Amino acid sequence: MPKPGSRLRLVDVAERAGVSLATASRALSGRDGVSEEVADRVRRVSQELGYVANPYARTLAGGASSTVGLVVHQVDDPYFSEIAGGVIEVAAEQGLLVQICHSGRDPHFELRQIRHLIAQRVGIILIAGSGYTDTRVEAETKAELSAYQSLGGRVAVIGRHSLGADAVLPDNEAGGRALAEHLLALGHRRIAVAAGTPGLTTVTDRLAGVASALRGHGLDLAELPVVHTDFTREGGRVAAERILGDHPGTTAVIALNDAMAMGVLAVLRARRISVPERVSVVGFDDVSVAADLAPSLTTVRLPMTEMGRTALALALKPRSNRPRRRPTGHTLVVRDSTGPAPA
Amino acid sequence: MPKPGSRLRLVDVAERAGVSLATASRALSGRDGVSEEVADRVRRVSQELGYVANPYARTLAGGASSTVGLVVHQVDDPYFSEIAGGVIEVAAEQGLLVQICHSGRDPHFELRQIRHLIAQRVGIILIAGSGYTDTRVEAETKAELSAYQSLGGRVAVIGRHSLGADAVLPDNEAGGRALAEHLLALGHRRIAVAAGTPGLTTVTDRLAGVASALRGHGLDLAELPVVHTDFTREGGRVAAERILGDHPGTTAVIALNDAMAMGVLAVLRARRISVPERVSVVGFDDVSVAADLAPSLTTVRLPMTEMGRTALALALKPRSNRPRRRPTGHTLVVRDSTGPAPA
DNA sequence: CTAGAGTACGAAAGCGCTTTCGCAAGCGCT
DNA sequence: AGCGCTTGCGAAAGCGCTTTCGTACTCTAG
């Protein structure tokens, strides 16, 4: 920790500009009550000297806290690191720090992380990733966040609608529907689903979309194999093994995110089942590597980086009383992992 | 920003425990000069009340700053996000914040980021990613960091030996050699290199390893195509196009990182050149998706997550006078993207 | 020419913590 | 009993900023 006295302080700038500490502070933080002329002089001096305010002192004195806490399900999952990229971009523009926390898709752990962030007095909390269907924990989390907001904290969530905060929301149901429609149009009927971590609303929403498309074609999701494992590559592997073992006639697998799709593809490759000739595979999210898998993955694209950017921008804007919702677009990206159902 | 007065302060804890503010502070931060009995009482009360110190006040008052700045070349590159994962893990254990900055592989921008972190008074700075061969900027960066360290700041670098700080160092040269040896053993002679961003020491080191292996087999790297583009997937694409255009007889491509290898594979796939039958491809790093590409990628594994962990652990340990170096192991991982040279 | 309002700035009071300093009590020693 | 030591604790001085409050000065109105 740099020793005191060693760094430029606001007094130094003030002195050099021939004004008081108070005036210098006002000038630099854009408060009014300072003549344009003086304000200009202070800013110039500060620039020349390379002054940067001590964020700890600033926050302690009651200024806005300059750190934003970002809670994600899994830091090294590309879905979340792309979101983080967007958040960091905006934060850098605004001179904000970003503190990233990992919740491991455990609602209790997530709540702990949020409580910790609040105790740390971060000014903004961003929560990325699916909500939980366990309404008890979810309600507790929501209560915690409400208290935080009523104290002036700012919150935005990404891909979650249950926390009573501003939200950036992809339409998971429509995405799921698009995926299923695509497969149905290709003539697939023996469709299986590799579903993600149980207890996540993303899973239920995407599944609902799939079910609705199926119904439109006279099929019932309840009669098709839906294997719940985990939203990871490993989860995809396990699901694929089970699907192929129990339902060898399957011609298409819907993985509810790209990580799982990668696991599914790995299993098919290992079993030398050709994709898409014998089995078609689709994912969800369009993480950047999806295009590089072989075969390249048909999936629903979510604009992750932009979602991160939007979420922070939303949290930064003065809050109205009602939570705002920013729907995000999604597009079906058809690549080489899907093809006509085999005869 | 939570309003003042709304949160538990240390005085509250002190009062409740029947001791002075000073004693409470000492008890909680483990300073001595407090009897075990009193310290215990304070800790218990603090626990009961759910007290969490205000990090801004703590830092301002001269305690250790609890944030670590992590500078990476590119936030959403899996190589760096895996390193970040390791750093965040250790940071969470220690109750530290992690602030991630993006340098975009530009040494000047990187220096600016570092200066900003220093001005922000972070207590620890971690720098991940290759050094720059431009010794001027590198020296300037080093000087800045030395000043910071002499003021008590802590620094550790990952994959870089030029900054006079504690370092976690993969052996890029040996890795490059292993890759080339592997291809040579398979009978390849017409080898091309898709080299990364010019001006990075990682590029020169890995190349040096390749050159040394080639020499051992009577070949000269200077006579083989080495295309310098950029350490990204797109860079790999461009390099591959050029290599295939100018040297159609090439039987093996060494990409100097996995991202580039992905670009190379994409081009080969587009041109329907089968891998590894006609052309073998190798990468470097073993990012987690390397195993899922098709064909899965032969590469040199670096333990990224562990490197991140080690770097922070190193920075946390009391500093000796000489910079410490932690070499990291690497292993050649042979997968399906390499095979015998075609006759 | 003075009263009242408005504007530009400085002095000083915190924000919540750590740390220095000083005092009081307890100890063994001469 | 008196001395110096050590030990355990409290009072108070900051850390570098923001903000409230007050003062001096200008300007318009009466």
Automatic annotation (TrEMBL), chains A, B:
Domain HTH lacI-type: start-end pairs: 8-62
Domain of life per record: Bacteria
InterPro entries found in the cross-reference section: HTH_LacI, LacI/GalR-like_sensor, Lambda_DNA-bd_dom_sf, Peripla_BP_I
A single MF term (Gene Ontology): transcription cis-regulatory region binding
Bias (Basic residues) ranges: 319-328
PROSITE patterns linked to this entry: HTH_LACI_1, HTH_LACI_2
SUPFAM superfamilies: lambda repressor-like DNA-binding domains (SSF47413), Periplasmic binding protein-like I (SSF53822)
Keywords for the protein's UniProt record, in alphabetical order: DNA-binding, Transcription, Transcription regulation
Segments for region (Disordered): 319-343
The protein's name in its UniProt record: LacI family transcriptional regulator
Organism phylogeny: Bacteria, Bacillati, Actinomycetota, Actinomycetes, Micromonosporales
